[in-house]
Amino acid sequence: MELDKLYWNILALLQENARYSFAEIGRKVGLSAPAVAERVQKLEEIGVIKRFGVDLDFVKLGYSLKASILFKAHNGKMQSFLAHISQMPEVYQCDRITGEYCLVMKVIVKHPNDLENIINKFSEYGEPTTSVILSSPVEYKVVKQST
Question: Could you give the CA distance from residue 43 to residue 8 in angstroms, rounded to a whole number?
Answer without folding.
Answer: 10
